Amino acid sequence: MKIDIISIFPEMFSSISKYGILGKAIKKNLLTIDYFNPRHFSENKRKRIDSKPYGGGPGMVMMFQPLTSAINVSKKKSNNTTKVIYLSPKGTELNKKKALSLIKHSYITLVCGRYQGIDERILKTVVDEELSIGNYILSGGEIAAMVIIDVISRLIPGVVGNIDSINSDSFSNKLLEEPQYAKPKTILNMSVPKTLLSGHHKNIKEWKLKASLKETLLKKPNLLLKKKLSTKELKLLVLIKKKLHKNSF
């Protein structure tokens, strides 16, 4: 997969491209990341990329020419096959389903805005989609782009060594992942659940499902409304609710 980043601060991405899973993916040539700085494409003598907004208001707006020129270079490089995504709080919110649809594209261009945003005419001419990582405001699109790169790159075949770790991640089956434990067995009088130490695979599997349902019920109950629960999951959920209700008195 190839990802182009349009950003006035490309140096910010060194932190994710050199380390961890992403660093390994790049070394294995499973992922290629390239950068285009709009300042390098500005036709302004001072290489300006922003101006005051028409109609007044606070802040500055990224101008059409520098940003569009940078995007067009990325498009040309991909033979016009790239999907151009602008990182924006107005966009569709990123989730697992959206991430899976993105990895179907072999080429993606992520546009990182700054200041008050970008000229609307950029969205209407060279951007294919607006994408958000949440309902809040960041100082720029770079961090959002890093999140998206990390999320989608883990889904590229060969990037994560153990595919089961992806399939069992939170949200993979619309449930939160069960609690995890590591050595030692006891810390501050808190012990690892006996079932996980039993070696009984069937019981461990059921414990994990029950724990996953409980985590979801307590922390993100809205997910349960979106998931079609099996008969077994429904029965376990009823038992969990009864036990929680009993312990609350």
UniProtKB/TrEMBL annotation:
Residues where S-adenosyl-L-methionine binds: 113, 133-138
Organism: Buchnera aphidicola
Similarity remark: Belongs to the RNA methyltransferase TrmD family.
Protein name: tRNA (guanine-N(1)-)-methyltransferase
Gene symbol of the encoding locus: trmD
SUPFAM superfamilies: alpha/beta knot
Entry's Gene Ontology cellular component terms: cytosol
Catalytic activity entry: guanosine(37) in tRNA + S-adenosyl-L-methionine = N(1)-methylguanosine(37) in tRNA + S-adenosyl-L-homocysteine + H(+)
GO biological process: tRNA N1-guanine methylation
EC number: 2.1.1.228
tRNA methyltransferase TRMD/TRM10-type domain sequence ranges: 1-224
